[in-house]
Amino acid sequence: MRAIIFSILVLFSVNAHSNDFQFGASTILSDYDAEYEGSYKINVAYLFDDNFSVEASYIKLGTNSDGDGNEEFDAKGIAIMGIYKYPINDFALYAKLGALKWKEEGFYNIWWETELPKRKVPAKDNGTDAIYGVGISYSLTNNIAVKFEIDETDFNAGTLLIGLGFDISF
What we know:
The chain is mainly beta. Helix content is 8%, strand content 65%. The chain has a single domain (19-169), classed as Porin (Beta Barrel), CATH 2.40.160.20. The protein has 1 helix and 8 strands; from the N terminus they run αββββββββ. This is Putative outer membrane protein.
């Protein structure tokens, strides 16, 4: 643990003047995630300047289930988004637009069977949809910011993602 903290401090001190990259993570409330148990986002970004950046994210969209055990699906995806930030002192308002490559895997039961246990039939789907959103961040230091984001994607006939997280610049 001490080695990790020391490495982070050295990284920040060496790159204190450039801050061209960001690493971040967020916990997410997703309306796809029926149980609200563990949706999250991990992102890396390249900052072209104070206003424009590009972000790559891994998003765990969650688990969707019908509640009675007849079907259950997990979804995740990778997003690439362009971001425009408008800095206001220690705050920044931003808008995002990009594409989400998603994958959904799970099972459904053959509901018309009367024998128990019912057979679980595996199912999967994937695709690419638009993702867009807005957010606000607050800089705690020159290298660390907290953020609140609202994203929406066309995945699953529209999925809303509300996130709270942090970004570390280096």
